[in-house]
């Protein structure tokens, strides 16, 4: 090879690298991603969730939360759905998830129904994003066009789940920083916390407020005394903390802005809920007040924040894979690695031949 050819070859190499990088770094999700390949995916999931929620109204909140817990750990890549295997330490075992997340079986039911209609097309990560939006709609909340085209991870990270998923005992500063780490700002934090307008929480996750808050020997002073009495009856001191109660005291299964008016009357359930309104001087108070006075505004910002959250760390293009079974990577042995390499090589060949 002479020096000119070598230069040309080097330049071609760089071009290939740049061209290959482009679709990944600039890949955008798109609400019409499955038009033509699985046009009915939204209505299929709506049917399943309409059915399931008739006997289990809580499932709608559980599914919104599942998408959140997916996105905060190496991005919205369905890593939360991967079960323990020889090579996977499941995120389901992380402290914020263990004995807490719900809906894994329903996601599998959705996946089976979607696979029957459009085999090998729709990712588990997109199913989680769609199920979250549909759950909002089915509980009277806002609808939005869900950007699609996510692909599923080949890995999970339980350590990262323990690090990134916020505990209900964080201070407001810690909460803000947990969200900032994901590219979400204070407005997003307040709007997304509004998902606690539906769903339940168990005693162990707020019992710290009831008897000996922050080692003061007294209950949390920002907890409404009427609610305090109710919760002390439900959650005996030193009990197992397994009883459940509604996150939204006033309209437990309806997606509305009452979550925020509850904060105004010190009826937020979790410490992290009440802090948004009761931390003196906090910039979150004004946002809460805006959402109380205008539900349309809350819905608009909630939609934008859900789309923003749904974009965190997504895999697109030829990254990851479309899992056949959401709980396991495809051919969960060395063969999945080989398949990934084969796909990469063929896309490189296509690019080179198109130059
Ligand atoms: C701001 C930080 C957050 C903290 C500290 C937090 C914490 C919690 C806790 C402790 C529970 C109760 C879990 C249990 O009892 O097992 C819960 C439930 C829930 N969370 Fe959050 N959460 C946060 C943000 C979010 C976000 C951003 C969303 C969604 C956009 C969300 C949606 C939900 C829903 C819908 C439930 C009810 C789930 C069910 O009933 O199965 N949360 N959260
Ligand atoms: C995709 O389908 C949806 C629903 O039928 C429609 O609203 C949208 O305009 C379509 N998008 C494209 C790009 O065809
Ligand atoms: C919903 O339930 C009805 C009646 O139980 C059943 O006929 C239908 O197949 C179910 N649809 C889905 C998508 O599960
Ligand atoms: C995956 O693990 C969950 C519990 O975390 C379990 O309910 C489910 O049955 C498992 N899925 C499969 C296919 O084994
Ligand atoms: C591989 O996946 C199957 C389910 O498809 C599961 O039962 C098995 O435990 C997994 N094995 C390993 C080694 O990951
Ligand atoms: C999850 O909780 C169960 C108790 O229900 C416990 O046995 C198990 O060790 C926990 N898993 C992890 C990974 O901590
Ligand atoms: C999981 O996350 C931890 C904490 O950020 C990181 O140190 C580790 O390298 C990750 N593990 C894998 C297998 O990616
Ligand atoms: C948060 O980000 C959104 C855009 O995603 C922006 O409109 C909003 O002003 C930001 N809020 C704050 C408090 O920075
Ligand atoms: C709990 O106490 C610590 C110091 O003792 C303080 O920094 C923290 O802000 C307190 N948390 C709340 C929510 O009051
Ligand atoms: C659940 O709440 C009831 C009161 O409604 C209480 O008597 C019982 O001890 C609680 N159970 C647990 C496991 O905390
Ligand atoms: C406590 O909550 C009740 C409604 O449940 C409300 O009427 C009352 O004003 C609240 N107390 C405070 C101090 O906000
Ligand atoms: C409520 O918010 C919406 C959306 O931002 C806005 O269009 C509307 O004018 C607001 N309504 C009032 C009464 O301020």
UniProtKB/TrEMBL annotation:
<comment type="function">
    <text>Removal of H(2)O(2), oxidation of toxic reductants, biosynthesis and degradation of lignin, suberization, auxin catabolism, response to environmental stresses such as wounding, pathogen attack and oxidative stress. These functions might be dependent on each isozyme/isoform in each plant tissue.</text>
</comment>
<feature type="domain" description="Plant heme peroxidase family profile">
    <location>
        <begin position="28"/>
        <end position="330"/>
    </location>
</feature>
<feature type="binding site">
    <location>
        <position position="77"/>
    </location>
    <ligand>
        <name>Ca(2+) 1</name>
    </ligand>
</feature>
<dbReference type="GO" id="GO:0042744">
    <property type="term" value="P:hydrogen peroxide catabolic process"/>
</dbReference>
<keyword id="KW-0376">Hydrogen peroxide</keyword>
<comment type="similarity">
    <text>Belongs to the peroxidase family. Ascorbate peroxidase subfamily.</text>
</comment>
<keyword id="KW-1015">Disulfide bond</keyword>
<keyword id="KW-0325">Glycoprotein</keyword>
<feature type="binding site">
    <location>
        <position position="75"/>
    </location>
    <ligand>
        <name>Ca(2+) 1</name>
    </ligand>
</feature>
<keyword id="KW-0964">Secreted</keyword>
<feature type="disulfide bond">
    <location>
        <begin position="71"/>
        <end position="76"/>
    </location>
</feature>
<dbReference type="InterPro" id="IPR019793">
    <property type="entry name" value="Peroxidases_heam-ligand_BS"/>
</dbReference>
<feature type="binding site" description="axial binding residue">
    <location>
        <position position="196"/>
    </location>
    <ligand>
        <name>heme b</name>
    </ligand>
</feature>
<comment type="similarity">
    <text>Belongs to the peroxidase family. Classical plant (class III) peroxidase subfamily.</text>
</comment>
<keyword id="KW-0408">Iron</keyword>
<feature type="binding site">
    <location>
        <position position="91"/>
    </location>
    <ligand>
        <name>Ca(2+) 1</name>
    </ligand>
</feature>
<dbReference type="Pfam" id="PF00141">
    <property type="entry name" value="peroxidase"/>
</dbReference>
<feature type="signal peptide">
    <location>
        <begin position="1"/>
        <end position="27"/>
    </location>
</feature>
<feature type="disulfide bond">
    <location>
        <begin position="124"/>
        <end position="326"/>
    </location>
</feature>
<dbReference type="InterPro" id="IPR010255">
    <property type="entry name" value="Haem_peroxidase_sf"/>
</dbReference>
<dbReference type="GO" id="GO:0020037">
    <property type="term" value="F:heme binding"/>
</dbReference>
<feature type="binding site">
    <location>
        <position position="248"/>
    </location>
    <ligand>
        <name>Ca(2+) 2</name>
    </ligand>
</feature>
<feature type="binding site">
    <location>
        <position position="166"/>
    </location>
    <ligand>
        <name>substrate</name>
    </ligand>
</feature>
<dbReference type="InterPro" id="IPR002016">
    <property type="entry name" value="Haem_peroxidase"/>
</dbReference>
<keyword id="KW-0479">Metal-binding</keyword>
<keyword id="KW-0106">Calcium</keyword>
<dbReference type="GO" id="GO:0140825">
    <property type="term" value="F:lactoperoxidase activity"/>
</dbReference>
<feature type="binding site">
    <location>
        <position position="79"/>
    </location>
    <ligand>
        <name>Ca(2+) 1</name>
    </ligand>
</feature>
<keyword id="KW-0575">Peroxidase</keyword>
<dbReference type="InterPro" id="IPR033905">
    <property type="entry name" value="Secretory_peroxidase"/>
</dbReference>
<dbReference type="GO" id="GO:0005576">
    <property type="term" value="C:extracellular region"/>
</dbReference>
<feature type="disulfide bond">
    <location>
        <begin position="203"/>
        <end position="235"/>
    </location>
</feature>
<feature type="site" description="Transition state stabilizer">
    <location>
        <position position="65"/>
    </location>
</feature>
<dbReference type="GO" id="GO:0046872">
    <property type="term" value="F:metal ion binding"/>
</dbReference>
<keyword id="KW-0349">Heme</keyword>
<feature type="binding site">
    <location>
        <position position="73"/>
    </location>
    <ligand>
        <name>Ca(2+) 1</name>
    </ligand>
</feature>
<keyword id="KW-0560">Oxidoreductase</keyword>
<feature type="active site" description="Proton acceptor">
    <location>
        <position position="69"/>
    </location>
</feature>
<protein>
    <recommendedName>
        <fullName>Peroxidase</fullName>
        <ecNumber>1.11.1.7</ecNumber>
    </recommendedName>
</protein>
<feature type="binding site">
    <location>
        <position position="251"/>
    </location>
    <ligand>
        <name>Ca(2+) 2</name>
    </ligand>
</feature>
<keyword id="KW-0732">Signal</keyword>
<feature type="binding site">
    <location>
        <position position="256"/>
    </location>
    <ligand>
        <name>Ca(2+) 2</name>
    </ligand>
</feature>
């Amino acid at each position: 090879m002479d020096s000119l050819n070598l230069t040309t070859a080097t330049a071609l190499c760089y071009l290939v690298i740049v061209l290959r990088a482009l679709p990944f770094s600039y890949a955008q999700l798109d609400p019409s991603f499955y038009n033509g390949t699985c046009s009915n995916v939204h209505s299929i999931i709506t049917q399943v969730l309409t059915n399931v929620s008739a006997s289990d109204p809580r499932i709608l909140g559980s599914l919104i939360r599942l998408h959140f817990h997916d996105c905060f750990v190496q991005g919205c890549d369905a890593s939360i759905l991967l079960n323990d295997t020889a090579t996977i330490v499941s995120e389901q075992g992380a402290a914020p998830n263990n004995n807490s997340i719900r809906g894994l079986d329903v996601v599998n039911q959705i996946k089976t129904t979607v696979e029957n209609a459009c085999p090998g097309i729709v990712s588990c990560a997109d199913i989680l994003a769609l199920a979250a939006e549909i759950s909002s709609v089915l509980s009277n909340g806002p609808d939005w066009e869900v950007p699609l085209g996510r692909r599923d991870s080949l890995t999970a990270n339980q350590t990262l789940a323990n690090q990134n998923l916020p505990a209900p005992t964080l201070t407001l500063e810690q909460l803000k920083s947990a969200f900032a780490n994901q590219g979400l700002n204070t407005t997003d934090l307040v709007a997304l916390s509004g998902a606690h307008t539906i769903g339940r929480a168990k005693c162990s996750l707020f019992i710290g407020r009831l008897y000996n808050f922050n080692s003061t020997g007294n209950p949390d002073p920002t907890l409404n005394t009427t609610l305090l009495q109710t919760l002390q009856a439900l959650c005996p001191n030193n009990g197992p903390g397994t009883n459940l109660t509604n996150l939204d005291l006033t309209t437990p299964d309806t997606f509305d802005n009452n979550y925020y008016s509850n904060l105004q009357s010190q009826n937020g359930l979790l410490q992290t809920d009440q802090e948004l309104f009761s931390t003196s001087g906090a910039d979150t108070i004004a946002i809460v007040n805006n959402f109380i006075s205008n539900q349309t505004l809350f819905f608009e910002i909630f939609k934008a924040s859900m789309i923003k959250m749904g974009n965190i760390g997504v895999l697109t293009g030829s990254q990851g894979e479309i899992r056949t079974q959401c709980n396991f990577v495809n051919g969960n042995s060395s063969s999945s690695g080989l398949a990934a390499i084969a796909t990469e090589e063929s896309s490189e060949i296509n690019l080179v031949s198109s130059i």
